[in-house]
Amino acid sequence: MADLPGIVVTGASGRMGRMLVETIRASDKARLVGVTERSGHSWVGQDIGVALGGPEAGVTVTDDPLEAFAQAQAVIDFTAPAATVAHAELTAQARAVHVIGTTGLSEADLEVLTHAARHAVIVRAGNMSLGVNLLVGLTRRVAAALGEEFDIEVIEAHHRMKVDAPSGTALMLGEAAAAGRGVVLGDVADRGRDGITGARQPGAIGFSAIRGGDIVGEHDVLFAGEGERIVLRHVATDRAIFARGALRAALWGQDRKPGQYDMMDVLGLSD
Predict the structure, then answer these.
(1) Could you report the per-residue pLDDT of 198-210, keeping only the tens digit for each?
(2) Neighbour tally for 146: CB within 10 Å
(3) What is the pLDDT of residues 179-200, one digit of tens each?
(4) What percent of the chain has pLDDT above 70?
């Protein structure tokens, strides 16, 4: 086991953090060497196995990411933008693979990641599942095949606790649609409608966000033309798909050259 890549999970008490810990512990391809939580969290100082309500796992929850990352070959990070940016600088120092599933990153945040990627491998994606990344590829191809007479809407649904909208996955799909049409998403995105908005602008890529209950994740890409509609859809029913994808990315990143990658690279689907 000691020769397997050691992985640290940040934000271990969150929904994805818990799933990641369980996925890594069950894997025969990696080992859990660290877990982090914010300072003052009740889990800090506890064994992660005990914190999760089971037997001891031999890994203590810490609020010192530098200490945890120093012994890791990869860090899997589904936290918040400010935390992820701070983690990126530390993973670059440790030369560890940084797998980022955090969404809601700003342009300034992305600049920090670009700098960190000069020294370490960063795999970042708004969604780590195989199915979603296949959907991204299909969206780009369909958008390229259809003209502006087909309106594009990205419709996403998530649980009531999600704090950002549109989701990272929805933005991935919007970027794919824009790339298929040869335009910049920021120039054509329509991310909110309320009141008297006027007619839809030709070539716009619209976004609609639904929040409620315990929805794991649903994404539709609607191509609406005169007399016909095409709908590409992905429905997630278990967060384990994201954890398995993140683990795959962490393993794929071993021995890669420093730089920024995404799940299309990991899955061999890049153009």
Answers:
(1) 999 999 999 999 9
(2) 17
(3) 999 999 999 999 988 899 899 9
(4) 99
Q: Quick one: residue 58, left, alpha or beta (phi over 0 = left, psi -120 to 50 = alpha)?
A: left
Q: What is the CATH number of the domain that holds 55?
A: 3.40.50.720
Reduced to 3 states (helix: H, G, I; strand: E, B; else coil), residue 114 is helix
Q: What tokens were used for 71?
A: 């012994």
Q: Give the angle 120-124-128 at the CA atoms, nearest 5°.
A: 135
Of the candidates 41, 119, 159, 162, the residue annotated as catalytic is 162
CA angle, corner 166, sides to 79 and 149, nearest 5?
150
What is the total count of domains within the chain? Answer: 2
Mark whether 164 and 120 lie in a shared domain: no
Residues 224 and 247 in one domain: no
Q: In whole angstroms, how far apart are CA 116 and each of 35, 97, 109, 156?
A: 21, 11, 11, 31
Whole-model pTM above 0.85? no
| Residues 96 and 134 both lie in one domain | no
Query: What is the rounded CA–CA span in Å between residue 67 and residue 70?
Result: 5
Q: Are residues 66 and 169 in the same domain?
A: no
Residue 162 is a catalytic residue: yes
One domain for residues 230 and 258: no
Among 98, 158, 219, 234, the one annotated catalytic: 158
| Cα 198 to chain centroid, rounded | 34
